[in-house]
Design a protein that fits this description.
- It comes from Clavelina lepadiformis.
- It is found in: Cell membrane.
- By secondary structure, the protein is mostly helical.
- It has one domain: Sodium/glucose cotransporter.
- It is about 75% helix and about 0% strand.
- The protein contains 11 helices and no strands.
- The model has no long low-confidence stretch (mean pLDDT about 85).
């Protein structure tokens, strides 16, 4: 993706953007590995460390062996599992709290229906403008200038197919987001009168949804497993595509420029080695995530935004402001 920046500006900008993307994605994948560990830890005797090691190992194995084709096929299967598990959890929780109206009443009483707050104060974290503008900037980065997405576009038959894929993907993205958000709303209504963290049922708010699912599905065979599978699918999808895309960035942006005589076989061998190394690094980030304070959502959003904004700005500057350039001779 960042080859454009070298043509438009220079090699330094390309490498800086690539490095920034690598750092951001490595931390983000560490968070993604940590999430299913919480889910599995809530419903099985397996420890967090064991689960994180297992997840990282599986992702690294099939990504290193199968490359982009393995990533795309597994993503397709994992999408159905994620949606099924998330939707089942949302419907069950909504039914248990008394329906959609009960959820909305609970949110109203708790002052949580602040989506239509049009306050222009930029220091406020949740207003209509921060959500609408921030989410669109984040989605623009994800859909337009992220390496993992670019590789998917390149796997399409033609530019028209890539455009169709980009347009079609907006709708399931919106659907997934709505299911996740409303699941959180239903969870708030379910625990309205009893905070599970204060009562000692969980030790971190990140454990809330897995704990809730294990409660509401305790007498329904297979449903807890479906939710855990959905959590794992999300992680496998994120980490496998992340490792594959970062391997491409490291190879093309940092190794190939200094060793242009590399054969195709050598490039493949180096890519697999990089994938294994990244898998180990992601595992280390997952262990680091366990020690962080704050919720995983807030940490992930901060990490993603700190790099996504500048990267999107670079491409926007290059495409829409033709009079900008780099300082030569420095």
């Amino acid at each position: 993706m960042f080859e454009y920046l070298e043509y438009r500006f220079d090699e330094r900008i390309r490498k800086l953007a690539s490095f920034l993307s690598i750092v951001k994605m490595t931390f983000y994948m560490g968070i993604a590995v940590y999430l299913p560990a919480l889910a599995l830890n809530a419903v099985t005797p397996m420890g967090l460390q064991t689960t994180m090691l297992l997840t990282s190992g599986i992702c690294t194995f099939y990504t290193a062996l199968g490359g982009m084709k393995a990533v795309i096929w597994t993503d397709a299967l994992q999408t159905f599992i994620m949606f099924s598990g998330g939707l089942a959890a949302m419907i069950k929780i909504v039914i248990m709290v008394g329906g959609t109206n009960a959820v909305l009443e609970s949110l109203e009483k708790g002052g949580r229906l602040n989506m239509w707050d049009f306050n222009l104060d930029p220091t406020l974290q949740r207003t209509f403008w921060t959500i609408f503008i921030g989410y669109n900037i984040n989605l623009s980065h994800a859909m337009c200038v992220r390496q993992a997405t670019g590789q998917r576009y390149l796997s399409c038959k033609s530019i028209n197919h890539a455009r169709m894929a980009a347009i079609i993907s907006v709708f399931p993205t919106m659907l997934f987001t709505l299911v996740a958000v409303f699941s959180g709303c239903a969870a708030y209504a379910y625990y309205e009168t009893c905070d599970p963290l204060q009562s000692g049922k969980i030790t971190k708010y990140d454990q809330l949804m897995p704990h809730l699912v294990s409660e509401v599905f305790h007498s329904t065979p297979g449903m807890t497993g479906l939710f855990v599978s959905a959590a794992f699918s999300g992680t496998l999808s994120t980490v496998s595509s992340g490792i594959n895309s970062l391997g491409s960035l490291i190879l093309e942006d940092f190794i190939v420029p200094s060793k242009r005589s590399l054969s195709e076989a050598s490039r493949v061998a180096i890519s697999k080695t990089i994938a294994v190394g990244l898998g180990c690094l992601v595992l280390a980030m997952a262990f680091l995530t366990e020690t962080m304070s704050g919720t995983i959502v807030s940490i992930g959003t901060s990490l993603d935004g700190s790099a996504s904004g500048p990267l999107l700005a670079l491409f926007t500057l290059g495409i829409f402001f033709p009079w900008t350039n780099t300082i030569k001779g420095t």
